[in-house]
Design a protein that fits this description.
disordered N terminus; 466 residues; 7-stranded mixed β-sheet; binds zinc ion; alpha/beta; disordered C terminus; Urease, subunit C, domain 1; 5-stranded parallel β-sheet; TIM Barrel
């Protein structure tokens, strides 16, 4: 969690997440065993195909799926014998979306009271996360980069449960905890100084390169997929100043080098320009938030090939959800103070050619509302609709280092696919209500008119009892 945004009440963020409800039963079908996918080939006939990479839209094409992967995409695809055909010829097919900044083990109602984290066991956090994961997947986000949790390693357990097929959710990369300075944006700061918090709530608190190397090594040992460094102050942390740097460049570099030994990338939470420059120079893969990015910081991220993950939707969420949930006034004040400059800054970065990957900070907004950010990327920062879609498909996949498996409808990729009965290039708001979601060749959700949710769940139960 942690950011800014813009004032207007754009969406009733009391959020119509209800839309996920009717398909809950069908969602059980998501839990395909690893290496699974349907037993016979599946051919999806699409009215239009947006493949996540190309500028062009393919009219009237077929996506052929064998096992959990795509094997052919095109206008003329010969179908193997026994192929099941799914007719989406009045729909636009797109790759399953990717959110590069989520916190699936957190929820908005935990944002107002830090003591809430003390009342929850790891088991409680885990059980509450199950619904977050399902809502995210049913919203069409088949992959997430989950960038930190207060209760260390609960995200690792969630990822593993999804991969085993025990829980319905997106493919996940997880960070395990936040690497943060004492009193920084990844700490719980509201307690009296003589209170010593349990280790699992301050696993990543570190000062100096040696301590940073130590906590990164612990993260690697617990099988995280990336490291999350809180490089600057934060909006959603008491007493923390977003405009102020936290770690030094030397400290961030220590994290990048240690993570690099294990083949892991680093995501840097950074609001202020100095922290953005320091993080880019230190070699992080992404700047998350990027609120006060200026001309020098834009030059730095361009020079070092750093992505920016701009979670624009979290701004309105801090105000709307924050008020609803009784979050501290300090959070809302900090958000209001920067709600004009943030979209302007990111717009300049986008114009300069910075690679912007889609991320929402879900947990600030309710889980499953991720797609509501798409129109903001056009209206606020000047992307074309196709650029906004690519930011959540091929661009996001490249940031994660997963471009060979997700983010495009192409042979060899996982059969992660969504479909909408409209042209999203005309109006991206249609993506906020996706009726058809497939992950790894299995239908997760089919809420098209006339469909009876539940068949997929029955198939899943059959496959699990074998
Ligand atoms: Zn966050």
């Amino acid at each position: 969690m942690l950011q800014v945004g813009r004032g207007a009440v754009i969406f009733g963020l009391a959020l119509s997440l209800a839309l996920a409800g009717p398909v809950a039963a069908a969602a059980a079908a998501a839990a395909a065993p690893p290496g699974g996918g349907p037993a016979r080939p599946v051919a999806i006939r699409c009215g239009r195909i947006i493949d996540g990479v190309s500028e062009e839209v393919l009219a009237g094409g077929t996506v052929l799926i064998e096992g959990e992967r795509i094997t052919r995409v095109g206008r003329e695809v010969a179908l193997p014998g026994g192929a099941e055909v799914i007719d989406l010829s009045d729909h636009t097919c797109l790759p399953g979306f990717i959110d590069c900044h989520t916190h699936l083990t957190d929820r908005p109602e935990s944002g107002g009271d830090e003591a809430d984290h003390l009342r929850r066991s790891a088991a409680d956090v885990a059980f509450r996360s199950i619904d977050n994961a399902r809502r995210t997947l049913e919203a069409g986000f088949t992959t997430v980069r989950d960038v930190g949790t207060y209760h260390a390693f609960t995200d690792v357990a969630l990822r593993d449960a999804i991969n085993r097929g025990d829980v319905v959710g997106p493919r996940m990369q997880v960070a395990g905890f936040y690497v943060t300075i004492p009193g920084g944006g990844g700490e719980l700061n509201s307690f009296a100084p003589e209170i010593r918090l349990p280790e699992h709530l301050r696993f990543g608190v570190a000062s100096g390169p040696d301590e940073i190397r130590r906590v990164v090594r612990q993260a690697v040992r617990q099988r995280v997929d990336l490291i999350k460094v809180i490089a600057s102050g934060a909006f959603l942390a008491l007493g923390s100043v977003p405009q102020a740097p936290a770690f030094t460049e030397e400290e961030i570099r220590a994290a990048v080098r240690e993570a690099g030994k294990a083949g892991l990338k680093v995501a840097a939470h950074a609001h202020d320009a100095l922290s953005i420059v320091a993080s880019a120079r230190a070699g992080v893969a992404s700047i998350d938030h990027g609120t006060f990015i200026d001309a020098e910081a834009i030059r730095a991220v361009l020079k070092h090939g750093t992505y920016v993950v701009a979670d624009l939707i979290s701004g309105p969420c801090i105000k709307e959800v924050g008020r609803e949930q009784g979050w501290p006034e300090e959070y809302i004040r900090k958000q209001e103070e920067s709600e004009t400059i943030w979209p302007e800054s990111i717009r300049k970065a986008q114009r300069a050619g910075v690679r912007i990957a889609f991320g929402t900070d879900a947990a600030v907004c309710p889980h499953g509302a991720n797609a509501r950010q798409f129109p903001l990327m056009v209206e606020w920062i000047g992307m074309t609709p196709m650029q906004a879609i690519r930011s959540a498909t091929s661009v996001a996949a490249a940031l994660m280092g997963w471009e060979d498996r997700v983010g495009s409808l192409a042979p060899g990729r996982f059969a992660d696919l969504v479909a909408v009965p409209a042209d999203p290039l005309r109006d991206l708001r249609v993506l906020a209500s996706i009726p058809f979601v497939m992950k790894g060749g299995r239908v997760i959700k089919d809420a098209r008119p006339g469909r009876t949710p539940g068949n997929e769940a029955a198939q899943f139960c059959e496959s699990r009892s074998n």
